[in-house]
Write a structure and sequence with these properties.
alpha/beta; nine-stranded mixed sheet; 7 helices; globular
């Protein structure tokens, strides 16, 4: 292994005692360092991180992108593997990463397919798979940006690693509903900050299109009742984010300035 191909796994957390051990166990013997940046957990997150030999740092929450960029800045290696606490490396992805470390890199950023565990089963369609995520990167060549659904910004084309990144995304329908409420609020704020002000038409047109797109065109029907729920919640998410954008627009007009979300 070339010294420059040592990997620092970077994870951001907040009350992740349910998930963290599974992720960190999958990183054992794969990465050369684990950095956990926590936003003030009140559970056993810190204890679990330290049990697995991670460097544990605390940073007040600002945004997903800023938390992840801070973690990368604190890493001791140039190559960063950015992960969420509710994810896990599959055995195939572990092998792929070990093989990658033996070769000269051909790209500055690598993507990997992510497979979601939803209500007790892996999802194969519904637009949720392969859901390529760009997670392995040289920290001097890329940075995360975006308030929600943060993404790496970089130049050039990404490479691709074999194997799945396993995502234990939703354990109950109530949890899915809570995520939709939280993410649509952030999405509306991001759209407003980007100068978007049109929302009424999207509520009536984009919402049914979202359901049709996910259930039929993306093969949600092949995932059974779970695919139907995913399509339903995707449509709800579309409706809510535009309704919340509309509220920000109206609040801004009444106040004559930028509303406080």
């Amino acid at each position: 292994m070339h010294p420059s191909q040592r990997i620092s796994a970077c994870v951001i957390t907040l009350n992740e005692e349910r998930n963290l051990s599974r992720l960190l166990t999958s990183l054992k013997t794969i990465v050369d360092e684990i950095v956990v940046v926590d936003a003030g957990s009140k559970d056993r997150t810190e204890a679990i991180a330290r049990e697995h030999g991670a460097h544990f740092l605390v940073r007040a929450w600002t945004s997903y992108s800023e938390q992840k960029n801070f973690a990368a800045e604190c890493a001791g290696n140039d190559w960063v593997l950015s992960l969420d606490a509710d994810e896990e490396l599959s055995s195939a992805l572990q092998t792929s990463l070990l093989d990658w470390k033996k070769r000269e890199p051909k790209a500055a950023v690598y993507e990997v397919a992510r497979r979601a565990w939803y209500l007790g089963k892996w999802i194969h369609f519904s637009g949720w798979y392969p859901d390529f995520q760009r997670r392995l990167y040289r920290r001097d060549a890329a940075r995360f940006s975006g308030i929600i659904h943060e993404a790496l910004r970089f130049e050039g084309q990404p490479g691709r690693l074999r194997g799945d990144l396993l995502h234990y995304s939703v354990n109950s329908f109530a949890e899915h509903e809570n995520k939709v409420e939280r993410y649509t609020t952030l999405a509306a704020q991001q759209m407003y900050a980007a100068g978007k002000r049109r929302w009424r038409g999207a509520v009536w047109l984009a919402t049914p299109w979202s359901w049709f797109h996910n259930y039929f065109l993306r093969g949600g029907f092949l995932d059974g009742y779970r695919g139907a729920l995913i399509a339903q919640m995707a449509a709800r998410s579309t409706r809510l984010k535009f309704e919340k954008l509309g509220k920000l627009v109206e609040d801004g007009r009444r106040s004559g300035g930028t509303p406080t979300p």
